[in-house]
Amino acid sequence: MTLAATAFASTVSAFASTVSAAASTALAASPVPLASSPEYTLPFVGPGTYLIFGIVLAPVYAMVAAWFVGDPSDRAKGLLGVGYLAGLTTVLWGGLFVATLVIGAVFF
Amino acid sequence: MSVDVTGVDRDTLVRPIQTFSKRYLAALAVGLGLIGVWLVFYYQQLRHGLIVTNLSDWGSGGGVPWGLYIGAFIWWVGIAHGGIILSAAVRLLGMDTYQPVARLAELLTIAALTCAGLFILIHVGRPDRLVTSVVPAWPTRVQWSPLMWDVTVITAYFVLTATYLALTIRYDIHRLRDRLPSPLDPLYDALMVGYSEKEDEVVERMVWWIAFAIIIMAPLLLHGGVIPWLFALLPSMAGWAGGVQGPSFLSIALTSAVSGIIIIAAAFRYAYGWDELIPDAVFRGLSQWLGFFSLIFLWLQLQQVITGIFAAPTTLQHATEVKIATPLYWVAIGLVALAMLYAFATSLRPDLFDIRTMVALSVGVLAGTLAEKVLFVVEGLQHAHFALYDGVPGAYVPSPTELSALLGTIGIVVLFFLVVSKVIPVVELHAIEDDHEEVNP
User: Fold this and answer.
1) Torsion angle (degrees, nearest 10) of CA B360, B431, B103, B428
2) Which of A39, A45, A49, A108 would you mutate first to test chain B, the one with the most B CBs within 10 A?
3) Cα-Cα-Cα-Cα dihedral of A26, A31, A33, A34, to 10°?
4) Could you tell me if residue B439 is inside a domain?
Protein backbone atom coordinates (compact mmCIF):
# COMPACT_ATOMS: atom_id res chain seq x y z
CA MET A 1 0.00 0.00 0.00
CA THR A 2 1.41 3.40 -0.92
CA LEU A 3 1.75 6.23 1.55
CA ALA A 4 -1.05 8.17 -0.15
CA ALA A 5 -3.36 5.16 0.01
CA THR A 6 -2.57 4.63 3.68
CA ALA A 7 -3.27 8.29 4.45
CA PHE A 8 -6.57 8.09 2.54
CA ALA A 9 -7.60 4.96 4.40
CA SER A 10 -6.72 6.58 7.68
CA THR A 11 -8.75 9.68 6.84
CA VAL A 12 -11.75 7.58 5.81
CA SER A 13 -11.48 5.59 9.01
CA ALA A 14 -11.35 8.74 11.11
CA PHE A 15 -14.32 10.20 9.22
CA ALA A 16 -16.28 6.98 9.74
CA SER A 17 -15.52 7.08 13.45
CA THR A 18 -16.65 10.69 13.66
CA VAL A 19 -19.87 9.94 11.79
CA SER A 20 -20.50 6.90 13.95
CA ALA A 21 -19.95 8.87 17.15
CA ALA A 22 -22.20 11.68 15.91
CA ALA A 23 -24.89 9.20 14.97
CA SER A 24 -24.72 7.58 18.38
CA THR A 25 -24.96 10.96 20.08
CA ALA A 26 -27.89 11.96 17.87
CA LEU A 27 -29.65 8.68 18.55
CA ALA A 28 -29.15 9.02 22.27
CA ALA A 29 -30.53 12.56 22.22
CA SER A 30 -33.29 11.73 19.80
CA PRO A 31 -36.81 11.84 21.19
CA VAL A 32 -37.80 8.56 19.54
CA PRO A 33 -40.51 7.26 21.89
CA LEU A 34 -39.27 3.73 22.37
CA ALA A 35 -40.50 1.61 25.23
CA SER A 36 -36.96 1.28 26.54
CA SER A 37 -36.26 5.01 26.51
CA PRO A 38 -35.62 5.93 30.14
CA GLU A 39 -37.37 9.27 29.81
CA TYR A 40 -40.68 7.52 29.11
CA THR A 41 -40.78 5.06 31.98
CA LEU A 42 -42.69 7.43 34.24
CA PRO A 43 -46.46 7.15 33.95
CA PHE A 44 -48.11 9.75 31.71
CA VAL A 45 -44.80 11.41 30.75
CA GLY A 46 -44.35 11.37 27.02
CA PRO A 47 -45.47 12.75 23.67
CA GLY A 48 -48.62 10.64 23.52
CA THR A 49 -49.83 12.07 26.80
CA TYR A 50 -49.31 15.61 25.56
CA LEU A 51 -50.98 14.81 22.26
CA ILE A 52 -54.05 13.05 23.64
CA PHE A 53 -54.60 14.92 26.90
CA GLY A 54 -53.18 18.23 25.69
CA ILE A 55 -54.67 18.51 22.22
CA VAL A 56 -57.21 15.82 21.30
CA LEU A 57 -59.24 16.09 24.51
CA ALA A 58 -58.94 19.89 24.78
CA PRO A 59 -62.50 20.44 23.43
CA VAL A 60 -63.79 18.26 26.29
CA TYR A 61 -62.09 20.49 28.86
CA ALA A 62 -63.65 23.55 27.20
CA MET A 63 -67.02 21.81 27.27
CA VAL A 64 -66.85 20.94 30.97
CA ALA A 65 -65.61 24.43 31.86
CA ALA A 66 -68.48 25.96 29.90
CA TRP A 67 -70.97 23.79 31.81
CA PHE A 68 -69.96 25.60 35.00
CA VAL A 69 -68.94 29.09 33.91
CA GLY A 70 -70.95 29.58 30.71
CA ASP A 71 -74.16 31.54 30.43
CA PRO A 72 -76.60 30.06 31.21
CA SER A 73 -75.14 27.42 33.52
CA ASP A 74 -76.13 25.64 36.68
CA ARG A 75 -73.82 23.93 39.16
CA ALA A 76 -76.16 21.01 39.80
CA LYS A 77 -76.68 20.31 36.10
CA GLY A 78 -72.96 20.67 35.49
CA LEU A 79 -72.33 18.06 38.15
CA LEU A 80 -74.99 15.87 36.56
CA GLY A 81 -73.09 16.08 33.27
CA VAL A 82 -69.77 15.29 34.97
CA GLY A 83 -71.51 12.43 36.76
CA TYR A 84 -72.62 11.02 33.40
CA LEU A 85 -69.08 11.30 32.03
CA ALA A 86 -67.49 9.64 35.05
CA GLY A 87 -70.30 7.13 35.58
CA LEU A 88 -70.44 5.95 31.98
CA THR A 89 -66.65 5.56 31.86
CA THR A 90 -66.80 3.50 35.04
CA VAL A 91 -69.68 1.38 33.74
CA LEU A 92 -67.90 0.77 30.45
CA TRP A 93 -64.57 -0.38 31.87
CA GLY A 94 -66.09 -1.76 35.08
CA GLY A 95 -68.33 -3.96 32.94
CA LEU A 96 -65.32 -5.21 31.03
CA PHE A 97 -63.55 -5.84 34.32
CA VAL A 98 -66.47 -7.92 35.59
CA ALA A 99 -66.53 -9.80 32.28
CA THR A 100 -62.82 -10.49 32.74
CA LEU A 101 -63.44 -11.90 36.20
CA VAL A 102 -66.23 -14.08 34.83
CA ILE A 103 -63.99 -15.35 32.02
CA GLY A 104 -61.25 -16.06 34.53
CA ALA A 105 -63.64 -17.98 36.78
CA VAL A 106 -65.32 -19.95 34.01
CA PHE A 107 -62.42 -20.80 31.71
CA PHE A 108 -59.26 -20.72 33.84
CA MET B 1 -88.04 24.70 10.97
CA SER B 2 -86.96 23.93 7.44
CA VAL B 3 -89.07 20.87 6.70
CA ASP B 4 -92.84 20.86 6.77
CA VAL B 5 -94.03 18.56 9.54
CA THR B 6 -97.42 20.16 9.89
CA GLY B 7 -99.95 17.66 11.12
CA VAL B 8 -97.45 15.46 12.91
CA ASP B 9 -98.55 14.96 16.48
CA ARG B 10 -97.01 13.36 19.54
CA ASP B 11 -98.80 10.08 18.95
CA THR B 12 -97.04 9.78 15.61
CA LEU B 13 -93.73 10.39 17.36
CA VAL B 14 -94.23 7.54 19.83
CA ARG B 15 -95.77 5.16 17.31
CA PRO B 16 -92.80 2.74 17.48
CA ILE B 17 -93.31 2.49 21.25
CA GLN B 18 -97.04 1.94 21.12
CA THR B 19 -97.28 -0.50 18.23
CA PHE B 20 -96.21 -4.09 17.89
CA SER B 21 -96.34 -5.84 14.54
CA LYS B 22 -95.34 -9.07 12.84
CA ARG B 23 -92.81 -7.08 10.85
CA TYR B 24 -91.21 -6.03 14.11
CA LEU B 25 -91.00 -9.65 15.21
CA ALA B 26 -89.55 -10.62 11.84
CA ALA B 27 -86.87 -7.94 12.12
CA LEU B 28 -86.17 -9.07 15.68
CA ALA B 29 -85.76 -12.65 14.45
CA VAL B 30 -83.36 -11.51 11.73
CA GLY B 31 -81.28 -9.49 14.21
CA LEU B 32 -81.12 -12.30 16.75
CA GLY B 33 -80.43 -14.82 13.99
CA LEU B 34 -77.43 -12.86 12.75
CA ILE B 35 -76.09 -12.57 16.29
CA GLY B 36 -76.70 -16.29 16.82
CA VAL B 37 -74.71 -17.22 13.71
CA TRP B 38 -71.82 -15.10 14.93
CA LEU B 39 -71.92 -16.59 18.43
CA VAL B 40 -71.67 -20.12 17.02
CA PHE B 41 -68.49 -19.18 15.14
CA TYR B 42 -67.16 -17.02 17.96
CA TYR B 43 -67.45 -19.96 20.33
CA GLN B 44 -65.10 -21.85 18.02
CA GLN B 45 -62.66 -18.94 18.08
CA LEU B 46 -62.75 -18.80 21.87
CA ARG B 47 -62.27 -22.56 22.04
CA HIS B 48 -59.47 -22.93 19.49
CA GLY B 49 -58.01 -19.44 19.29
CA LEU B 50 -57.46 -16.98 16.44
CA ILE B 51 -56.02 -19.82 14.34
CA VAL B 52 -59.58 -20.45 13.11
CA THR B 53 -59.39 -17.08 11.35
CA ASN B 54 -55.85 -17.49 9.94
CA LEU B 55 -55.03 -14.20 11.64
CA SER B 56 -52.90 -15.56 14.46
CA ASP B 57 -49.16 -15.15 14.89
CA TRP B 58 -47.65 -14.02 11.57
CA GLY B 59 -50.92 -14.23 9.74
CA SER B 60 -51.31 -17.72 8.38
CA GLY B 61 -53.01 -16.51 5.20
CA GLY B 62 -50.38 -14.64 3.20
CA GLY B 63 -48.96 -12.73 6.15
CA VAL B 64 -52.05 -10.86 7.28
CA PRO B 65 -52.41 -10.74 11.07
CA TRP B 66 -54.95 -7.91 10.62
CA GLY B 67 -57.81 -8.56 8.23
CA LEU B 68 -61.57 -8.14 8.16
CA TYR B 69 -61.68 -7.62 11.92
CA ILE B 70 -59.60 -4.44 11.75
CA GLY B 71 -61.11 -3.31 8.44
CA ALA B 72 -64.58 -3.65 9.94
CA PHE B 73 -63.41 -1.87 13.09
CA ILE B 74 -62.39 1.19 11.05
CA TRP B 75 -65.62 0.98 9.07
CA TRP B 76 -67.87 0.88 12.15
CA VAL B 77 -65.94 3.59 13.96
CA GLY B 78 -66.20 5.75 10.84
CA ILE B 79 -69.97 5.28 10.72
CA ALA B 80 -70.07 6.19 14.41
CA HIS B 81 -68.09 9.39 13.97
CA GLY B 82 -70.07 10.52 10.95
CA GLY B 83 -73.39 9.85 12.67
CA ILE B 84 -72.79 12.09 15.63
CA ILE B 85 -71.23 14.79 13.42
CA LEU B 86 -74.58 15.08 11.67
CA SER B 87 -76.45 15.31 14.95
CA ALA B 88 -74.00 17.87 16.32
CA ALA B 89 -74.26 19.91 13.13
CA VAL B 90 -78.05 20.05 13.52
CA ARG B 91 -77.69 21.56 16.97
CA LEU B 92 -74.61 23.68 16.39
CA LEU B 93 -75.09 24.97 12.87
CA GLY B 94 -78.90 25.15 12.85
CA MET B 95 -79.33 22.52 10.13
CA ASP B 96 -82.94 22.01 11.20
CA THR B 97 -83.87 20.13 8.04
CA TYR B 98 -82.18 17.09 9.53
CA GLN B 99 -83.67 17.35 13.02
CA PRO B 100 -86.04 14.41 12.39
CA VAL B 101 -83.04 12.12 11.89
CA ALA B 102 -80.68 13.68 14.47
CA ARG B 103 -81.45 11.21 17.25
CA LEU B 104 -81.33 8.28 14.83
CA ALA B 105 -77.82 9.49 13.97
CA GLU B 106 -76.89 9.67 17.68
CA LEU B 107 -78.21 6.16 18.24
CA LEU B 108 -76.34 4.93 15.18
CA THR B 109 -73.18 6.37 16.71
CA ILE B 110 -73.67 4.45 19.96
CA ALA B 111 -74.52 1.20 18.16
CA ALA B 112 -71.66 1.54 15.68
CA LEU B 113 -69.12 2.40 18.39
CA THR B 114 -70.23 -0.68 20.29
CA CYS B 115 -69.61 -2.79 17.19
CA ALA B 116 -66.22 -1.13 16.64
CA GLY B 117 -65.25 -1.91 20.24
CA LEU B 118 -66.49 -5.46 19.80
CA PHE B 119 -64.19 -5.99 16.83
CA ILE B 120 -61.22 -4.93 18.95
CA LEU B 121 -62.41 -7.24 21.71
CA ILE B 122 -62.67 -10.27 19.45
CA HIS B 123 -59.52 -9.40 17.51
CA VAL B 124 -57.30 -9.60 20.58
CA GLY B 125 -58.20 -13.28 20.89
CA ARG B 126 -58.90 -13.72 24.57
CA PRO B 127 -61.39 -10.96 25.41
CA ASP B 128 -60.08 -10.60 28.96
CA ARG B 129 -56.84 -9.27 27.46
CA LEU B 130 -58.53 -5.93 26.97
CA VAL B 131 -58.58 -5.56 30.75
CA THR B 132 -55.57 -7.62 31.80
CA SER B 133 -53.23 -6.19 29.15
CA VAL B 134 -54.56 -2.78 28.20
CA VAL B 135 -55.51 -1.38 31.59
CA PRO B 136 -52.25 -2.13 33.47
CA ALA B 137 -50.15 -0.93 30.53
CA TRP B 138 -52.20 2.17 29.79
CA PRO B 139 -50.47 4.73 32.07
CA THR B 140 -47.10 4.09 30.47
CA ARG B 141 -48.05 3.00 26.94
CA VAL B 142 -50.34 5.95 26.34
CA GLN B 143 -47.13 7.96 26.09
CA TRP B 144 -46.24 6.57 22.70
CA SER B 145 -48.64 3.87 21.50
CA PRO B 146 -51.32 4.90 18.94
CA LEU B 147 -53.26 1.80 20.02
CA MET B 148 -53.57 3.25 23.52
CA TRP B 149 -54.54 6.65 22.12
CA ASP B 150 -57.22 4.84 20.18
CA VAL B 151 -58.61 3.07 23.25
CA THR B 152 -58.58 6.37 25.15
CA VAL B 153 -60.41 8.46 22.58
CA ILE B 154 -62.95 5.79 21.70
CA THR B 155 -63.84 5.55 25.39
CA ALA B 156 -64.12 9.33 25.56
CA TYR B 157 -66.20 9.42 22.41
CA PHE B 158 -68.61 6.75 23.56
CA VAL B 159 -69.07 8.51 26.89
CA LEU B 160 -69.60 11.90 25.25
CA THR B 161 -72.21 10.51 22.86
CA ALA B 162 -74.06 8.65 25.59
CA THR B 163 -74.02 11.78 27.79
CA TYR B 164 -75.36 13.79 24.85
CA LEU B 165 -78.25 11.34 24.47
CA ALA B 166 -78.88 11.06 28.23
CA LEU B 167 -79.20 14.84 28.57
CA THR B 168 -81.36 15.44 25.48
CA ILE B 169 -83.75 12.60 26.27
CA ARG B 170 -84.87 14.20 29.55
CA TYR B 171 -86.85 16.93 27.78
CA ASP B 172 -88.71 14.39 25.67
CA ILE B 173 -89.39 11.85 28.40
CA HIS B 174 -90.89 14.52 30.64
CA ARG B 175 -93.33 15.66 27.99
CA LEU B 176 -94.17 12.23 26.60
CA ARG B 177 -94.23 10.30 29.88
CA ASP B 178 -97.93 9.45 29.67
CA ARG B 179 -97.33 7.80 26.30
CA LEU B 180 -94.38 5.71 27.42
CA PRO B 181 -94.70 2.12 28.75
CA SER B 182 -95.29 2.12 32.51
CA PRO B 183 -93.30 -1.11 33.18
CA LEU B 184 -90.22 0.91 32.30
CA ASP B 185 -90.96 3.59 34.89
CA PRO B 186 -87.89 2.74 37.02
CA LEU B 187 -85.69 3.36 33.99
CA TYR B 188 -87.40 6.65 33.19
CA ASP B 189 -87.16 7.69 36.84
CA ALA B 190 -83.43 7.06 36.73
CA LEU B 191 -83.02 9.01 33.51
CA MET B 192 -85.08 11.90 34.91
CA VAL B 193 -83.28 12.20 38.23
CA GLY B 194 -83.39 15.79 39.46
CA TYR B 195 -85.38 17.01 36.46
CA SER B 196 -87.31 20.26 36.47
CA GLU B 197 -88.56 22.29 33.55
CA LYS B 198 -86.31 25.11 34.68
CA GLU B 199 -83.30 23.09 33.58
CA ASP B 200 -84.30 22.96 29.91
CA GLU B 201 -82.51 26.14 28.92
CA VAL B 202 -79.35 25.21 30.84
CA VAL B 203 -79.29 21.63 29.57
CA GLU B 204 -79.89 22.79 26.01
CA ARG B 205 -76.78 24.96 26.39
CA MET B 206 -74.81 22.07 27.93
CA VAL B 207 -75.75 19.89 24.99
CA TRP B 208 -74.70 22.69 22.64
CA TRP B 209 -71.25 22.54 24.26
CA ILE B 210 -71.11 18.76 23.84
CA ALA B 211 -71.95 19.25 20.17
CA PHE B 212 -69.18 21.86 20.04
CA ALA B 213 -66.66 19.40 21.50
CA ILE B 214 -67.83 16.60 19.22
CA ILE B 215 -67.75 18.62 16.03
CA ILE B 216 -64.15 19.64 16.71
CA MET B 217 -62.98 16.25 17.95
CA ALA B 218 -64.69 13.97 15.46
CA PRO B 219 -63.46 15.26 12.13
CA LEU B 220 -60.21 16.92 13.11
CA LEU B 221 -58.91 14.74 15.88
CA LEU B 222 -60.59 11.35 15.86
CA HIS B 223 -61.49 9.95 12.45
CA GLY B 224 -59.26 12.55 10.87
CA GLY B 225 -56.58 12.01 13.53
CA VAL B 226 -56.24 9.25 16.08
CA ILE B 227 -57.90 6.49 14.03
CA PRO B 228 -55.85 7.07 10.85
CA TRP B 229 -52.73 7.53 13.01
CA LEU B 230 -53.04 3.82 13.82
CA PHE B 231 -51.76 3.34 10.27
CA ALA B 232 -50.40 6.65 8.98
CA LEU B 233 -47.63 6.77 11.60
CA LEU B 234 -46.12 3.45 10.48
CA PRO B 235 -43.51 4.19 7.81
CA SER B 236 -42.79 0.48 7.39
CA MET B 237 -46.14 -0.01 5.66
CA ALA B 238 -45.92 1.87 2.37
CA GLY B 239 -49.64 1.85 1.71
CA TRP B 240 -50.51 3.16 5.17
CA ALA B 241 -48.04 5.93 5.90
CA GLY B 242 -48.69 9.57 5.20
CA GLY B 243 -50.79 12.53 6.25
CA VAL B 244 -53.35 11.99 3.49
CA GLN B 245 -54.85 9.16 5.56
CA GLY B 246 -56.44 11.71 7.94
CA PRO B 247 -58.73 13.39 5.40
CA SER B 248 -59.14 10.12 3.53
CA PHE B 249 -60.43 8.29 6.61
CA LEU B 250 -62.68 11.23 7.40
CA SER B 251 -64.20 11.22 3.92
CA ILE B 252 -64.94 7.50 4.25
CA ALA B 253 -66.48 8.05 7.69
CA LEU B 254 -68.81 10.78 6.47
CA THR B 255 -69.76 8.89 3.31
CA SER B 256 -70.60 5.67 5.12
CA ALA B 257 -72.34 7.42 8.03
CA VAL B 258 -74.71 9.36 5.76
CA SER B 259 -75.45 6.08 3.97
CA GLY B 260 -76.22 4.41 7.29
CA ILE B 261 -78.53 7.23 8.36
CA ILE B 262 -80.37 7.10 5.02
CA ILE B 263 -80.98 3.35 5.43
CA ILE B 264 -82.14 3.57 9.05
CA ALA B 265 -84.32 6.64 8.49
CA ALA B 266 -85.92 4.98 5.48
CA ALA B 267 -86.53 1.80 7.48
CA PHE B 268 -88.33 3.71 10.25
CA ARG B 269 -90.28 5.77 7.74
CA TYR B 270 -91.41 2.62 5.95
CA ALA B 271 -92.15 0.61 9.10
CA TYR B 272 -94.14 3.30 10.92
CA GLY B 273 -95.65 5.28 8.06
CA TRP B 274 -93.53 8.31 8.96
CA ASP B 275 -93.81 9.97 5.56
CA GLU B 276 -94.78 13.24 7.23
CA LEU B 277 -92.34 13.01 10.12
CA ILE B 278 -89.33 12.22 7.92
CA PRO B 279 -90.36 13.86 4.65
CA ASP B 280 -88.73 13.49 1.24
CA ALA B 281 -86.82 16.74 1.79
CA VAL B 282 -84.72 15.05 4.49
CA PHE B 283 -83.70 12.26 2.13
CA ARG B 284 -83.05 14.66 -0.72
CA GLY B 285 -80.78 16.68 1.55
CA LEU B 286 -78.98 13.59 2.84
CA SER B 287 -78.59 12.40 -0.74
CA GLN B 288 -76.86 15.64 -1.70
CA TRP B 289 -74.55 15.39 1.30
CA LEU B 290 -73.79 11.80 0.32
CA GLY B 291 -72.94 12.95 -3.18
CA PHE B 292 -70.65 15.66 -1.85
CA PHE B 293 -68.85 13.38 0.61
CA SER B 294 -68.52 10.70 -2.09
CA LEU B 295 -66.84 13.27 -4.32
CA ILE B 296 -64.35 14.08 -1.55
CA PHE B 297 -63.77 10.36 -1.00
CA LEU B 298 -63.04 9.79 -4.69
CA TRP B 299 -60.81 12.86 -4.88
CA LEU B 300 -58.69 11.62 -1.98
CA GLN B 301 -58.46 8.16 -3.53
CA LEU B 302 -57.22 9.82 -6.72
CA GLN B 303 -54.63 11.72 -4.70
CA GLN B 304 -53.31 8.48 -3.24
CA VAL B 305 -53.25 6.64 -6.54
CA ILE B 306 -51.50 9.44 -8.45
CA THR B 307 -48.87 10.06 -5.78
CA GLY B 308 -48.42 6.30 -5.49
CA ILE B 309 -47.69 5.56 -9.13
CA PHE B 310 -45.98 8.74 -10.39
CA ALA B 311 -42.31 8.55 -9.39
CA ALA B 312 -43.16 7.16 -5.96
CA PRO B 313 -40.68 5.31 -3.74
CA THR B 314 -40.36 1.71 -4.92
CA THR B 315 -42.42 0.03 -2.21
CA LEU B 316 -45.19 2.64 -2.35
CA GLN B 317 -45.32 2.29 -6.11
CA HIS B 318 -45.59 -1.48 -5.75
CA ALA B 319 -48.33 -1.21 -3.11
CA THR B 320 -50.27 1.24 -5.28
CA GLU B 321 -49.88 -0.90 -8.40
CA VAL B 322 -51.22 -3.89 -6.47
CA LYS B 323 -54.15 -1.78 -5.24
CA ILE B 324 -55.19 -0.56 -8.67
CA ALA B 325 -54.79 -4.08 -10.07
CA THR B 326 -57.28 -5.43 -7.51
CA PRO B 327 -60.76 -5.73 -9.08
CA LEU B 328 -62.48 -5.38 -5.69
CA TYR B 329 -60.92 -1.92 -5.26
CA TRP B 330 -62.59 -0.75 -8.45
CA VAL B 331 -65.88 -2.31 -7.39
CA ALA B 332 -65.64 -0.25 -4.19
CA ILE B 333 -64.80 2.92 -6.11
CA GLY B 334 -67.60 2.19 -8.57
CA LEU B 335 -70.22 1.77 -5.83
CA VAL B 336 -69.31 5.12 -4.28
CA ALA B 337 -69.14 6.80 -7.70
CA LEU B 338 -72.59 5.45 -8.56
CA ALA B 339 -74.11 7.04 -5.46
CA MET B 340 -72.36 10.31 -6.23
CA LEU B 341 -73.60 10.36 -9.82
CA TYR B 342 -77.16 9.58 -8.71
CA ALA B 343 -77.08 12.32 -6.09
CA PHE B 344 -75.87 14.86 -8.63
CA ALA B 345 -78.30 13.64 -11.28
CA THR B 346 -81.24 14.08 -8.91
CA SER B 347 -80.03 17.58 -8.12
CA LEU B 348 -80.29 18.38 -11.81
CA ARG B 349 -83.54 16.45 -12.30
CA PRO B 350 -85.41 16.23 -8.98
CA ASP B 351 -88.10 14.01 -10.50
CA LEU B 352 -85.50 11.24 -10.78
CA PHE B 353 -85.20 11.02 -7.00
CA ASP B 354 -86.52 7.87 -5.39
CA ILE B 355 -85.95 6.90 -1.76
CA ARG B 356 -85.75 3.17 -2.51
CA THR B 357 -83.05 3.76 -5.11
CA MET B 358 -81.19 5.95 -2.63
CA VAL B 359 -81.38 3.23 0.00
CA ALA B 360 -80.05 0.64 -2.46
CA LEU B 361 -77.19 2.95 -3.43
CA SER B 362 -76.47 3.60 0.26
CA VAL B 363 -76.15 -0.14 0.86
CA GLY B 364 -73.74 -0.17 -2.07
CA VAL B 365 -71.72 2.67 -0.55
CA LEU B 366 -71.49 0.82 2.76
CA ALA B 367 -70.30 -2.31 0.96
CA GLY B 368 -67.81 -0.24 -1.04
CA THR B 369 -66.35 1.61 1.93
CA LEU B 370 -66.03 -1.65 3.88
CA ALA B 371 -64.25 -3.31 0.96
CA GLU B 372 -61.91 -0.34 0.58
CA LYS B 373 -61.02 -0.38 4.26
CA VAL B 374 -60.39 -4.13 4.37
CA LEU B 375 -58.20 -3.90 1.26
CA PHE B 376 -56.35 -0.95 2.83
CA VAL B 377 -55.53 -3.01 5.92
CA VAL B 378 -54.70 -6.28 4.15
CA GLU B 379 -52.69 -4.93 1.21
CA GLY B 380 -50.89 -2.49 3.50
CA LEU B 381 -49.59 -5.44 5.49
CA GLN B 382 -48.80 -7.61 2.49
CA HIS B 383 -46.70 -4.96 0.78
CA ALA B 384 -44.58 -3.56 3.57
CA HIS B 385 -41.13 -2.03 3.10
CA PHE B 386 -39.53 -5.09 4.64
CA ALA B 387 -39.86 -8.69 3.49
CA LEU B 388 -41.10 -9.97 6.83
CA TYR B 389 -44.16 -11.70 5.43
CA ASP B 390 -42.74 -12.81 2.09
CA GLY B 391 -42.21 -16.36 3.30
CA VAL B 392 -45.75 -16.76 4.58
CA PRO B 393 -47.67 -18.92 2.12
CA GLY B 394 -51.21 -18.51 0.90
CA ALA B 395 -53.43 -15.53 0.29
CA TYR B 396 -55.75 -13.75 2.67
CA VAL B 397 -59.42 -14.60 2.34
CA PRO B 398 -61.79 -13.60 5.14
CA SER B 399 -62.65 -16.72 7.11
CA PRO B 400 -66.24 -17.75 7.90
CA THR B 401 -65.55 -16.75 11.52
CA GLU B 402 -64.66 -13.19 10.49
CA LEU B 403 -67.58 -12.92 8.09
CA SER B 404 -69.92 -14.16 10.81
CA ALA B 405 -68.65 -11.39 13.09
CA LEU B 406 -69.58 -8.83 10.45
CA LEU B 407 -73.07 -10.31 10.24
CA GLY B 408 -73.23 -10.43 14.04
CA THR B 409 -72.45 -6.73 14.39
CA ILE B 410 -75.07 -5.86 11.78
CA GLY B 411 -77.48 -7.97 13.86
CA ILE B 412 -76.45 -6.04 16.98
CA VAL B 413 -77.26 -2.72 15.29
CA VAL B 414 -80.64 -4.07 14.12
CA LEU B 415 -81.40 -5.37 17.61
CA PHE B 416 -80.24 -2.13 19.22
CA PHE B 417 -82.63 0.00 17.15
CA LEU B 418 -85.50 -2.43 17.66
CA VAL B 419 -85.07 -2.37 21.44
CA VAL B 420 -84.31 1.34 21.82
CA SER B 421 -87.27 2.33 19.64
CA LYS B 422 -89.53 0.60 22.18
CA VAL B 423 -88.05 2.55 25.07
CA ILE B 424 -87.43 6.15 23.98
CA PRO B 425 -88.66 8.33 21.11
CA VAL B 426 -86.15 7.92 18.29
CA VAL B 427 -87.12 11.32 16.91
CA GLU B 428 -86.68 14.38 19.09
CA LEU B 429 -89.81 16.24 20.18
CA HIS B 430 -88.11 19.40 18.92
CA ALA B 431 -88.52 18.02 15.41
CA ILE B 432 -92.28 18.56 15.59
CA GLU B 433 -92.53 21.24 18.28
CA ASP B 434 -90.42 24.35 18.26
CA ASP B 435 -91.77 25.56 21.59
CA HIS B 436 -89.25 24.29 24.11
CA GLU B 437 -91.39 25.43 27.02
CA GLU B 438 -94.50 23.50 26.11
CA VAL B 439 -95.56 21.06 28.78
CA ASN B 440 -97.51 17.95 28.09
CA PRO B 441 -101.13 18.37 29.20
Assistant:
1) -140
2) A49
3) 30
4) no
Question: Cβ contact (<8 Å) for B143 and A80?
Answer: no
Sequence-separated (6 or more) residues with CB below 8 Å from residue B431: B1, B5, B13, B99, B100, B102, B277
Amino acid at B9: D
Q: Count CB atoms within 10 A of the CB of residue A106.
A: 7
Does residue B4 belong to any structural domain of this protein? no
Taking the C-alpha atoms of residue B267 and residue B129, their distance in angstroms, rounded to an integer, is 37
Q: Do B159 and A104 touch (CB under 8 A)?
A: no
Which residue out of A68, A69, A84 would a mutagenesis test of the B interface target, given it has the greatest number of B Cβ atoms within 10 Å?
A: A84
Q: How many domains does chain B have?
A: 1
Does some domain include residue B25?
Answer: yes
Q: Which of A56, A72, A88 sits opposite B153 (nearest CB)?
A: A56
Residue B438 lies in a domain: no
What domain range is B74 assigned to? 10-431
Contact check, Cβ <8 Å, B202/A77: yes
Q: How far apart are CA B121 and CA B113, in angstroms?
A: 12
Q: Distance between alpha carbon B60 and the CA centroid of its chain, in Å?
A: 29
Residue B344: closest CA among B378, B293, B302, B306 = B293
Q: Which long-range contacts does B34-39 make (Cβ < 8 Å, 24+ apart)? A: B34/B407, B34/B408, B34/B410, B34/B411, B34/B414, B35/B408, B35/B411, B35/B412, B35/B415, B36/B411, B37/B404, B37/B407, B37/B408, B37/B411, B38/B404, B38/B405, B38/B407, B38/B408, B38/B409, B38/B411, B39/B408
Candidates B143, B163, B193, B214, partner chain A, best to mutate (most A CBs within 10 A): B143
Question: CB–CB of B108/B260 below 8 Å?
Answer: yes
CB-CB under 8 Å, A70 with B209: yes
CB spacing of A77 vs B149 below 8 angstroms: no
Q: Say if CB B294 and CB B262 are below 8 A apart.
A: no
How does pLDDT run across B3-34, given as a tens digit for each residue?
666 568 899 999 999 999 999 999 999 999 99
Q: What's the rounded mean pLDDT across residues A76-100?
A: 93
CATH number, position B281: 1.20.1630.10
Binning chain B into helix, strand and coil, the percentages to the nearest 5 are: 75, 0, 25
Predicted pLDDT of residue A35: 52
Q: How far is B317 from chain A (nearest CA, A)?
A: 27
* Chain A residue with the nearest C-alpha to that of B144: A48
ipTM: 0.89
Peptide bond into A72 cis (omega under 30): yes
Is residue A21 very low, low, confident or very high in pLDDT (cuts 50, 70, 90)? very low
